[in-house]
Amino acid sequence: MLGKILVRYLAPAWPLLVLVVVFQLGQSIASLALPTLNADIIDNGVITGDIDYIWSTGAVMLGVSLLQVICSLIAVYFGSRLAMGMGKSLRGDLFHRVVAFSQREVGQFGAPSLITRNTNDVQQVQMLVQMSATVMVSAPMLAIGGIIMAVRQDAGLSWLMLVAIPVLLIAVALIVVRMVPAFTRMQARIDRLNQILREQLTGIRVIRAFVREREERERFGGASADVMETALRAGNLMALMFPVVMLVMNLSSAAVIWFGADQVQNHGVQIGTLFAFLNYLMQILMGVMMATFMFVMIPRAAVCADRIGAVLETEPSVEAPTESAVVARGNGRVEFDHVSFTYPGADDAVLHDITFTAEPGTTTAIIGSTGSGKTTLVGLVARLFDVTDGVVRVDGVDVRRMDPDDLWARVGLVPQRAFLFAGTVASNLRYGDRDASDDDLWRALDLAQAKDFVEALDGGLEAPIAQGGTNVSGGQRQRLAIARALVKQPEIYVFDDSFSALDLKTDAALRRALDRNIPDATRIVVAQRVSTIQHADQIIVLDHGRMVGMGTHDALLETSETYREIVDSQLSAKEAA
């Protein structure tokens, strides 16, 4: 998977890749030329006392060194551009794929894991590319070119390379093999740490309300300790690699001097040649050492690439049709035709054979006990997931045949958990319509019974909203979420238990405003309170995913035992009538 990702994202940037290769090649050639020039100065200048030769050859060495530095700087610059560009593209594709996921795929991977894959995992692959751009030419050039040049200097000592290089490669390979499982465990434990931290930040009020700070600190500390332990194992292996490399290099240097001294003493080799051979051997081993950096990073990057690839290769279960049906703008009629739904991996269906029609200009209410499938049912209208059996139609067309953007443009969904984005009141409301004027926003706030408290905020429409809307109350969040849907002005409104945090007076005023100002829209309301839905045109009663009643409030009091039990548990006999 790592190779597949690299080919896919580096191929479009081939001009940068060519520039990196060219300048790395220039740096390597300059590096290989310096020991030979140094040997010439020693043998033909220092020993003979030829000052002019020393100056002339030294000037050439200075020029070659300057060329080496310039090529290195340019190669690193273009290599960084290459890596950062690839990381940007990879993160973008990963983000767009996750955004296209239905709730099924998000639940499959888990939100903390998806966050880790789009941040830490991409960073590891990006670092590998940057490292590769730095050494992908230099390392093999220094190793191969160094071998050739060393043999040219002194073939008699070349047997030392046949010992040093295999020893170094075997030692590095043994370490790398043990690092792969350590990095695999590390990424999984980072996922777990992110999950716990996310839960604690989201549920901080619950933690404090139940005085569970100590237990949560211990839980986070345990997860953090697991990450530390795994990181230490991987770090110890990584730290072991460099002493091994240095040990082999130093032993090789000592061996060259030991065996080369005899040849110099017997006039078989000149001193400059011996130093040149030693420098080339160091370059060879340095090339191998640079390659070990790659070996260190490849296992972790490969694990991360597999995790990234798993997301990129997962097709969303809710997909746009190959040929979308052309649907004329209708009135927002919603039909459920013998609909059943089963979550993946579940043994039992959540919804069984649901059939009803929500007509334009009417309010269809859905009520039932907790876990009866109310939220799942309205999620099928917006196609957050697809039905298992049956058909959901909007204006007579199966939602699976509609372009998702067209469907979502017709539906204004106010979710069970009102969520606001970091920004301002205005920026949140304009999620419904980015071109809405301030007058449109105030009109929607007035309908949603939110105008008074927004006017009281410092800044009004420009008042800041924290991430998740944590700086406003639950009822205020719900009213802002309702106003956001009203700004959109869709044909179908789906209120998924969106009035639960409102007091009865505000609830009643809001329902009257909706009836008065959006009389032609189709309204589907999920509620727990009977007072919220008793005046609906039709009420659907769910029990364990089955329709056990449908009709008006008065009709259901006579025909549905389940509905009567719900009413009796909430209203007095006078209120129910």
Task: List the defining traits of the structure above.
21 helices, ABC transporter transmembrane region fold, four-stranded antiparallel sheet, 577 residues, Rossmann fold, six-stranded mixed sheet, alpha/beta, 2 domains
Q: What do you see in this structure?
A:
- The protein folds into two domains: 2-160 and 247-312, ABC transporter type 1, transmembrane domain (ABC transporter transmembrane region fold), CATH 1.20.1560; 334-576, Rossmann fold (3-Layer(aba) Sandwich), CATH 3.40.50.
- It is built from 21 helices and twelve strands.
- A hairpin with a 2-residue loop joins strand 11 (538-543) and strand 12.
- The chain has helices at residues 2-10, 14-46, 51-100, 103-109, 111-135, 138-153, 159-202, 204-209, 213-265, 271-312, 374-381, 404-410, 425-429, 438-447, 451-456, 474-488, 504-517, 530-533, 553-559, 561-570, 573-576, and strands at residues 334-341, 351-358, 363-368, 389-394, 397-398, 411-414, 423-424, 464-465, 492-496, 522-526, 538-543, 546-551.
- Helix 5 packs antiparallel against helix 7 and helix 14 crosses helix 16 (474-488).
- By secondary structure, it is α/β, with parallel strands linked by helices.
Summary of the model, kept short:
This protein is of the alpha/beta class and 577 residues long. It has helices at 2-10, 14-46, 51-100, 103-109, 111-135, 138-153, 159-202, 204-209, 213-265, 271-312, 374-381, 404-410, 425-429, 438-447, 451-456, 474-488, 504-517, 530-533, 553-559, 561-570, 573-576; strands at residues 334-341, 351-358, 363-368, 389-394, 397-398, 411-414, 423-424, 464-465, 492-496, 522-526, 538-543, 546-551. It folds into two domains: 2-160 and 247-312, ABC transporter type 1, transmembrane domain (ABC transporter transmembrane region fold, Up-down Bundle); 334-576, P-loop containing nucleotide triphosphate hydrolases (Rossmann fold).
